[in-house]
Each structure stands twice: as structure tokens, then as C-alpha cells.
Amino acid sequence: MGLVHLELFATLDLVGQSPGGPDEDPEGFEFGGWQAPLIGPVTGEQIAVAYEGTDALLLGRRTYDIFAAYWPQQSGSIADLFNAIPKYVASRSTLDLTWAGAQQLGADLPAAVREIKERHEDVKVVGSLDLVRTLLAERLADRLDLWLHPIVLGQGRKVFDGGVVPANLRLLAPAETAPSGTVHLRYAITDEIPGTGTIG
């Protein structure tokens, strides 16, 4: 059984909306592209390492549209990987999938994701906040790669808003930092429910 990895970029107040560019998510969000000034060689290398071994992408509709318009025209290690591996797209509407290797998932998303996990070892979910929430609610996500950036925005869609079920996470490796102040955290998502107690 393969693992579903959530690859997420967030601010310190856990906003995950539109990190990549101003036109990424045109919903009146004024900070689109907030990640760009904080990406440097160290963070870029961390991201490249995180994608090593990936054998499928699982994307929401909007992320697919952005990726399909960009990656086929690019070259380099991540572009070559993304262009070569299967891309599974979760969407309720009919899609025109022009990116080679892309296919739309059926209406029963949990069943489709379980089938994907049977076929692939390392499935990456990039962005796609609505899809992330569904995967967390259905307990279908296994790993979380979270890059926290040293800014707060006070607005925008947050990574864990709505639909998330309580769960413990287990740190898989020491946190990695970058000169910009970005912190990379790697967790396993467990089936354990957080405990409570009294301190002291």
C-alpha cells in the first residue's frame, strides 16, 4: 500500500492560499504570490528532495489547471518528473485533460484514492486545499510535508479549515530551516486521537 503525501506551503497563521503567484487563485486575495520572496536555494533543494521517488500526483482541479499550463513547457528535474508520471485529478465537473498522463477521478473520491494507493508507492498532493481537507477527513493522507514561512497575512484560506478530524502527528525528521526563516516539517499522520490532561 502506497503513501499519500501532502505537500503544503503555509504562512505562520497557516494561510495556504495562492503561494505561487498573484493570478493563482483570483478570489479577491491580495497576497497571491506571498511565497516568492521567501524561496531561495536552500528551500528549493528541500522541495526537490521531497519529490524524489514520487510516482504519481493527486491534484485538485485548480492546481491541475495551473500545473498543466506551466509544467509541460518547462524542463529540469521537477518538470521532467511531473511530465512523466500519472496525474490524477479530483473534480466534480467534466475536464479537458490535455496534460499527458492526466486522468480524472470518479465521483467516489475515497474509493479512487484507495485504488491509487494500491497502484503507487509515493503519491504527492500539491496545494489543492479542498482536496487536502477531504483526504484528512477521510483519513487517506499518510504524510505531511509542511513549509512554514515567516509571515502572517490575517486573511486567506487556511490549510486546516473545516472538515479535519482530530489526529496526532509524528515527527519523522528534525526540522530543516532556510536563511529566509522558512521551516520545513515532516510528519506522519497517525490514526491516534489527541489526548488531553492537566499540566502540573
Automatic annotation (TrEMBL):
Record GO biological process: riboflavin biosynthetic process
Entry-linked SUPFAM superfamilies: Dihydrofolate reductase-like
UniProt protein name: Dihydrofolate reductase
One Pfam family hit: RibD_C
Residue ranges of domain Bacterial bifunctional deaminase-reductase C-terminal in the record: 50-172
GO molecular function per UniProt: 5-amino-6-(5-phosphoribosylamino)uracil reductase activity
Superkingdom of the organism of origin: Bacteria
